[in-house]
Design goal:
Layout (H helix, E strand, L loop, with lengths): L8 E9 L4 E7 L4 E9 L6 E6 L6 E2 L11 H15 L3 E10 L10 E2 L2 H9 L8 H15 L4 E5 L18 H5 L9 H14 L1 H4 L2 E7 L3 E7 L2 E5 L20 H9 L5 H10 L2 H5 L7 H6 L3 H25 L4 E5 H6 L1 H8 L11 H6 L12 E4 L4 H16 L3
Bound molecules: adenosine monophosphate.
Length: about 400
């Protein structure tokens, strides 16, 4: 491991705990300089521990310090902390910021985690059964490993709590809305980062009508007016809206009834199909959930999967533009939005009716502005950074309760 002895001071650790992985990052205060990013994968099995110092380009694989694989999130986090202590001895973690997928109707802002907050978040697990339990496992593991330092929850749903009732509801009996069955929207930390970047990079345009397309393995699109979320393609769960790597996106609920009543599939089986076997993977006949593989494939199923993906992104641009009665800025972000010139080009093609004119060369080169000077809609490619948003929230809340 390289010598990081010049790094010293207080820092924020961010944690994004998934089912068998923990993504983490460290930001040195007070400037919030990101000093490292890493990921522990395969927790509970053959796990790997990789780290990249931001001062370098290459990634390092860390050997498990005790030649022992972690069995769970707690053991993985404990190993991570021990490694941090030895690799960055003069860096003191003063708070941990956690990505939490669901904050329900109540949590519209980052929150310091107390026993009471933890109880309320546990009650929300039914709303995001595939994500929330792992997020909470990460929090518990961090509480055990770090003792008393503040733990802060940053919610993916919080950014969308500004929606009006009609942008929030489903046309089912209202009693369900009162029980929390509504359109929450997700990827809020990414949207917040992009909204803030826009304000810095394009202050005039950022106040207008903006669509942000977060196209990653999970994907959604959000309409912003004056930097505030007014509608999003994801709704009650992270299944809704755009097709994703393995998730179905928009679907007629009648299909689910058919699966239950005529195919005899159980709720768990349907859940597996919709979350894990659908989207790009399902449409490509099981070939891949990865856009790079589909782009490189000559199979007709791969082409059709991409065709459907592009169709849905275009359709949602039209729908969100109609809701805002216009469009000034369109931003692409996420792994696909930031890296696939082909997807951006296909989405932006034949959109002159909305005022979009692509600059093919800028798009191919991956420049920030991908529209031509003549385009009425400013089209951009901006890399997102959810960890930075989490670190900032964690620092702000920690300053309120501690002397830092
Ligand atoms: P994310 O979830 O934001 O990390 O995005 C992950 C997805 O981005 C992967 O599943 C890939 O499909 C996609 N991706 C990453 N790089 C490229 C690329 N160069 N071209 C097309 N898709 C890409």
């Amino acid at each position: 491991m390289n010598n990081q002895e010049n790094l010293r001071g207080q820092a924020i650790l961010t944690i994004n705990a998934g089912s068998s992985s923990i993504k983490f990052s460290v930001f040195l205060l007070p400037q919030s300089n990101q000093i490292l990013v890493g990921q522990i994968d395969g927790i509970g099995g053959e796990s790997t521990f990789k780290v990249r110092w931001c001062s370098e380009n290459s990634e390092h694989t860390i050997n498990w310090p005790h030649a022992k694989q972690p069995h769970n999130h707690r053991e993985a986090l404990s190993e991570l902390i021990q490694w941090l202590h030895s690799a960055a001895q003069d860096v003191e973690i003063i708070a941990v910021g956690h990505r939490v997928v669901h904050g329900g109707q109540k949590y519209s802002a980052p929150t310091i985690i107390t026993d009471e907050v933890m109880k309320e978040l546990e009650a929300l697990m039914a709303l995001a059964p595939l994500h929330e339990p792992h997020n909470l496992a990460g929090i518990r593991a961090a509480q055990e490993s770090f003792g008393d330092i503040p733990q802060i929850a940053c919610f993916d749903t919080a950014f969308h709590r500004t929606h009006s009732f009609v942008d929030d509801c489903y046309a089912i009996p209202r009693s369900f809305y009162d029980k929390g069955v509504c359109r929450y929207g997700f990827h809020g930390l990414s949207y917040q980062y992009i909204a803030e970047r826009l304000m810095t990079m394009f202050p005039k345009e950022s106040g207008g009508k903006v669509i942000v397309a977060h196209l990653g393995n999970g994907a959604s699109m959000t309409a912003l007016k004056g930097g505030i979320s007014i509608a999003s393609t994801m709704g009650f769960s992270s299944l809704d809206g755009l097709p994703m790597g393995t998730r179905c996106g928009d679907i007629d609920p009648g299909v689910l009834l058919y699966m239950m009543q005529h195919e005899g599939l159980s709720a768990n089986e349907i859940s597996d199909i919709l979350y894990k076997e659908s989207g790009l993977k399902g449409l490509s006949g099981g070939l891949s959930n990865d856009m790079r593989t589909l782009e490189a494939s000559a199979l007709p199923e791969a082409k059709e999967a991409i065709d459907y993906y592009v169709r849905e992104v275009k359709r949602e641009i039209g729908a969100l533009t109609a809701l805002m009665a216009g469009l000034d800025v369109l931003v692409f972000t996420g792994g696909i939005g930031s890296n696939s010139a082909m997807i951006r080009a296909r989405v932006l093609k034949d959109m002159s009716w909305i005022g979009i004119d692509i600059d093919e060369e800028h798009n191919l080169k991956g420049e920030t502005i991908v529209s031509s000077p003549a385009s009425k809609v400013l089209c951009l490619k901006i890399n997102t950074d959810e960890e930075r948003v989490i670190a900032r929230h964690a620092f702000e809340l920690t300053k309120q309760i501690c002397d830092v």
